Amino acid sequence: MVPYPHQSYRAVCFRLRSLYAALGIGNVQCRKRLSFLSRNGLRPFWRRTQRSPTAQYYSAVTTARSSRPKPASLLAAPRRRSAARRLAACVRVAAAFRLTAIGVAAFAAFTVCLCRTALVFIAAAAAVVSLVPAFASARSRPIPPSPAKFVTSACRGPNGGIWLASEGDGVFHYNPKASSAWQNLSIGTPVNHNAAYAITCDTRGRIWVGSLNEGVFVLLPSRDQGQPARWRRYGLLADPSQDELAGPIGEHVYSIRVDPVDGSVWICTNSGISRYEPGRGKARGRWVYYDVANGLPSDDVQCVAFGLHGCAYIATTCCGIAISRPTRTSLRAGRKNDGHGPLHYGRWRAVKSRFTQGPPLTPTGRGLPSNLINAIITTRTGVIWVATDEGIAWSTDHGRRWRFLRGANWAAKDAGLVHPASAAFILNAGRLVPKTGTLSSDYCTCLAAAPGGDIYIGHRKTGVDILNPATGAIWRSDQAGTTTDRGHLLHQFIDAILMLRSGGALLGCYGGGVEELPALSRQSAPSKPQGAGLIPAMSAGAARLPAGAGAVAHAAMELLRRRLARKAKLFALRPPIIVPLDTDWRTEGNWLGRYGTYFADLGAMRSPKDIDWGAGWRGNGQFIGPRIGSHVTRQLPLIAQGDIIRRWIETLYTADRRMLEMPKPYLDKCWLTGLAPTRALFRRGAEWDDHGEAYPAYWQGPGIYCPLHLPPGLFRLAIYSVNMDGHSGPMRYRDYTCDILYPPQNTPNTGYFAVRAAPRWRVLATRRICDFWGGVWTPFLVRGPVTICIHFGRNYSLNTMVSAVTFSLYAALPMPYSREPPPAALAAHQYQMSVPGPRRIAEMARKCEVPLGFGAVERLPATPAAVEAGALFGGAIDAMRLRNCAVAAGRLSAKARRAMELRKAGWLWQTHRFRAAERLERQAGLVTPRQVELRLKWNEVDSTSGTDGALVRAYMAGHHLWNNKH
Question: Fewest beta carbons within 10 Å, which of 136, 782, 913, 951?
Answer without folding.
Answer: 136
